[in-house]
Fold this sequence. Notes:
Order of helices and strands: EHEEEEHEHEHHEHEHEHEHEHEHEEHHH
CATH superfamily of the largest domain: Glycogen Phosphorylase B
Shape: globular
CATH topology of the largest domain: Rossmann fold
Helix content: 25-40%
Strand content: 15-25%
Number of domains: 2
Largest sheet: 9 strands, mixed
Low-confidence stretches: 47-57, 63-70, 98-106, 224-277
Number of helices: 14
Amino acid sequence: xxxxxxxxxxxxxxxxxxxxxCLGITQALAEEQVEIIFVMPGSQIPDDEQFxxxxxxDILRSEETSSSRKGRDPFLKRITVNSPLTPYLNxxxxxxxAETAGSPFTSYEDDLFAEIDRYGHMAGRIAAGETFDVIxxxxxxxxxxxxxxxxxxxxxWIFHVHSLEYDRSGEAVNPEILQMEQTGxxxxxxxIAVSDYTKQRIIRYYGIxxxxxxxxxxxxxxxxxxxxxxxxxxxxxDAAPEEQxxxxxxxxxxxxxxxxxxYGAEQEHxxxxxxxxxxxxxxGKNVLFLGRITFQKGPDYFVEAAAEVLKHVPDAxxxxxxxxxxxxxxxxxxAELGIGKNVHFTGFLQGEEIEEIFRMSDVYVxxxxxxxxxxxxxxxxxxxxxxxxxxxxxxSEIIRxxxxxxxxxxxxxxxxxIALLCRKALAEEMRANAKEELSKITWQSAAEKIRSLxxxxxxxxxx
Length: 463
């Protein structure tokens, strides 16, 4: 069985949880003897990807030689469509990279949606040159590509929804992105939702029949698997491209004599590097927020809860790890509340920095306003950190050994943070039980369900 899969990020270069999910899915499907042709946009050849060659101005393709495949999954072939499309773009943040000036790549479109359409046509060319059984696409940016591939091949299409525009933007949705999601949801042969929470939102907001949607929860990649793939454990989830750091060696988290640098002072479209030179306290009362500092992730509720906690636990420390458009407002709010000595903004973290901040954390909080799934809480549990989850999240459907809160209830959130900081036996029990529970949440289980959908799609096509 061979699958043509469209994504928008894949290790080792990722900006969000989708890349981690695509790695988990493809590795587990390979164990099921499913061959994957993974197609994604990209505007340059990674320095370490010597197995990639040019096959025209618009497509880069992996060589299929035994030497180039050494150490790689034999069931995975990656094709990169030359495009500046990156995760979590919108019309405001899309831009053509300045470094492409003078390069042979001169066909980029000036408008985001025109570029997505161009990407779709390139996907059609790929579909015409490959043999495969099913099309599997991830999220809205791949809709046009999947449509073109199906038009050319006649194969069935599964649309995998990891996040919706209503999750990312609340009621202030982008109508063009919304329409693209609607098109994908209506035209795909079947839909995978990463949670029942997401399934219900698809039914409610897009009018899709529940019979067309299958819930398949994400799994977790254990640390040794990630390091074998030389993939950072986590990134700033869902960070927009102008919020990404330059690929530089980050400063050590525990470097002495450094003070926190409030994030958000840079110009909006300048490349940002990690600001991780934050002195980490060892009081045993460290509370972590890890994610994009935007409306969807609820950082404002985390800050308000922190202020409540500090009234009762004045030596607690709060770490906000990530970047996003709400970062300047969060810095200002922390100053207004007079809690600047206890709240630290680390900026963008990756690789060993993520490892370190999880190791020093005593509580992890996911205060999301709308979270389709949420992989980072699973990573926190891997590191033995008890978690507090928003009820408005998909991950709360599969983790029982945690505290649940409504994102808006800052007093309940504060009470539960205090309980975990001050009642060590409670925290230890939650930590141990959650880690045991996590061992049963695997990508292998997800892959078995996905393969079953592939088989059903092929059967319907042949009927």
